[in-house]
Each structure stands twice: as structure tokens, then as C-alpha cells.
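[agent] plan:
  1. take the single chain provided in the ticket
  2. run structure prediction with default settings
  3. attach C-alpha cells to the ticket
  4. add a short note for the reviewer (M.T.)
[agent] executing step 1
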Amino acid sequence: MQVDEQLHEEIMQAFREYFKANQRLVNEGTKRACMDTRFWLHRIRELGLERRRHLMEWRKWKDQDWDKKKSARRQARENKHVDD
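[agent] step 2 finished; step 3 output follows
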């Protein structure tokens, strides 16, 4: 979970940098500000894709955990009916 928290913080930091660069672009209108804004948008995209991969892995893990619990409950019900 620490990796997810670190990744979240990187996304937030990239967004803050994007916001600053975008403000410079709006106020100054320089090529440098435009390049910086585009860079941070690209960085946010990269981090977003990485975060998405982590979430997909977590979902798969949760699905497997859910399936195990569901199977255990089913087995317990079957065992109870056999004992009765």
C-alpha cells in the first residue's frame, strides 16, 4: 500500500507543477511555458497509467479473495446439509 500512497503523491505533485506551468502559459504565453505545460500533462498521463495498472492488480487480487471466500461459504453450506 505504501507504493500506492507514493504514486498518489507523485500524481498530486505533477498536477501542482502542471497548474503552475499552465498559469505561466496563461500569463506569459511563452514557448517555454507551453513546453512545460505539455511536459507535465504527459507526466500526469504516465503516472495515471501506472496507477491504473496498480488498481487493476488490486481488483484481480480482490476478485480472487472474493472467490475464495465465496467457495468457502458454499463448502460450509454443503457440509452443513450433509451433517443434517
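[agent] step 4 note for reviewer: The chain has a mean pLDDT of 90.
[agent] ticket updated
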